[in-house]
């Protein structure tokens, strides 16, 4: 199995890349499994958040060497289809309506950086090494580029895409690729638990709408059209069952229904 996935009683889905002997490098099976898993779990109303991690010594070393060797003999059309499948997988993670938390460690290269860029919250263990290594192979990070550039910006991409230099978790945080660092696995779990405590206090539908809001507004100029669109979105939220419950709970000085203890 290229993935292990489960959902616990608190609605936390855990997806683990499970090719440790290959440092969780992608192959066609992994790409398809990730796409289907995120699309399925993303539509599960019982899920509150998704944690993505990797088994073994690394989070994800990018594309599997054997997979790349096969691609060298593909036609242009086959290579385009292969690349589009990878892009579809990344888009499934990037647009997933559930909060996605990535827990990374070890090696994070190429497409693995793409995975990180698509997560909403990222914690990296001490000693994690990142690299956008494509140009050293005579390639470019084209498929992952929309997601990575959206995360780190054009300036950092102009450096990292061209040099293919390795960088650690502290630099990754400065570049905006990750959010927190942890001295070890236990510390990373503690950080994730902290994020989950806040997510459990938030209305699930509002969280999904907030993700969609960011995707819609990011990079747009502030126009009358955008202002009207955002006004429409908050009006719809106020009229929603969650919006009404949230206001009622606030006025009654109680926790809203979605954050009640089990």
How does this structure look, described?
The chain is an alpha/beta fold and 262 residues long. The protein folds into 2 domains: 3-198, 2-enoyl-CoA Hydratase, Chain A, domain 1; 203-259, Lyase 2-enoyl-coa Hydratase, Chain  A, domain 2. The protein is 51% helix and 15% strand. It has helices at residues 28-42, 65-71, 76-94, 111-118, 145-163, 169-175, 185-201, 204-217, 224-239, 241-251, and strands at residues 3-7, 12-17, 49-54, 100-104, 107-109, 121-125, 129-131, 167-168, 180-182. Helix 1 (28-42) links the parallel strand 2 (12-17) and strand 3. Helix 1 runs parallel beside helix 3 (76-94), helix 3 runs parallel beside helix 4 (111-118) and helix 4 (111-118) packs across helix 5 (145-163). It is globular, with a radius of gyration of 19 Å.
What's the end-to-end separation, in Å? Answer: 33 Å
Number of strands: 9
Apparent shape: globular
**SSE succession:** EEHEHHEEHEEHEHEHHHH
The CATH architecture classification of the largest domain is Alpha-Beta Complex
The percent range for helix content is 40-55%
Provide the residue-averaged pLDDT. 94
Q: Please indicate the percent range of residues in DSSP E strands (runs of 2 or more).
A: 5-15%
